[in-house]
Each structure stands twice: as C-alpha cells, then as structure tokens.
Amino acid sequence: MNKQYQCVIFDWDGTLMDSEARIVSSIQIAAKRANYPVLPYDVSKQIIGLSLEKAILTLYPEADAAGIKSISEGYTQCFLEESEVPMLPFEGAERLLKSLKSQGTKLAIATGKSRRGLDQVLDEVGFVDYFDLTRTPVESESKPSPLMLQQILEAFSLEPEQAVMIGDTEFDMQMAASINMDRVALSHGVHELERLQSFDPVACFDDLHAMHAWLANNIMPHEVKKI
User: What PANTHER family does the database record attribute to this sequence (predicted)?
Assistant: First the structure.
C-alpha cells in the first residue's frame, strides 16, 4: 500500500548538496590553523550532519572552549569565504524539488548547517523558494535530537506518519526513528548503506532519480500548482 505523505523533509549536505569534499577540507584546514591534528578524510567526514560544535567535539573531544571557538571560526571562514572546492546540488535535485512543489507537497529542511551557512547556499543555488520551512541547530538542537522534525511537524499541524525524512547519515535515520517518522536512506552521501539500514528505513536509493519515482507514488495528491 502506498503512503500518503503531506510533507517531505530533507537533510541538506550529502542529500541534496554534494558538499562532502568542501566540508572535510574546511574542517581539516580549520583544525590545522588551530594547532589540532589533521584527521584523515574518512574520519573527518563521519561528522557531516551534526551541528558544528558537536562535530568538533566528536573529532576533538579534548578541545576546550577556546579550541572549539578557534576551529569553529576557522571552519566558517574557510567554508563560506575561502574554499575553492566545488560544491553543487546532486543531479536531479532541482527537478525533484520542483516536481514535489508543483504538486502542493510541503517541503522542509532539517540540517546540521548553521543558519548563515544554509541561507547562503540556498540563495547561491536558487533553491530558497522551494522550501516552506527550514530548521538548523541555531534555532533548534543538533541531530540526532528529533527537535527539528518536531518543530516542522508543529508548524504544519501534522503527525509523524504524515511526513517522511530523507537523509544520507545515521543521524537523519535516528532522529526520524525516535519519533516513529518514516525515513528514506540515500547511499550517495556520507554513511554506508549498512549503517543506514540498521534504522529500518522504508526505502533505500542510490540516487535522487530513483527516489523521485518512489516519492511520486507516495505523496498525497494535491491540486497541481504552477511555479
């Protein structure tokens, strides 16, 4: 039996945006500038999806307040202002969002990015108008806390079963599972498929194209809108 979702909630980095390389590069540069060891790529990327402070403490549990501040400021400067590492939406991202929006589906983002970082990148790629609501740890809590999802549901007057969370990390899967919200796993991002499957997603896909077809059959029909 097909689902009847009224709201689709997306993670951002690793789900809609192919930003892994820039995030890892920025955290490595920031750590070096703050005189902390530069961790390997595969280690550094595991924190993508968490708030910046939580990510820093996960990688550098020995960091004190001054160290966290130094790495955080260095990361923000590098990622938003200095980095030349390319960062683009995954293929099919805009087509997917445009299709869902045209069908009247509520669209939201629950991300570990800062508010400044999310707003800047949404503006840069021209995706601002696709989303009805976005949440970051700045006005909520870091994943895997489900607070961002709960805030989105409250804003739309929906129950967990009326929405679906789409993400590429176990943090996305865990936050949705904790409030019994359906979740869809994407394997083109940060965490391996086996890790995502341990949280019993309703579906797993290798890319946005395959997921698009599934979503088209699992959202509540609305009057088609021109956008």
Answer: HYDROLASE-RELATED (PTHR43434:SF24), PHOSPHOGLYCOLATE PHOSPHATASE (PTHR43434)
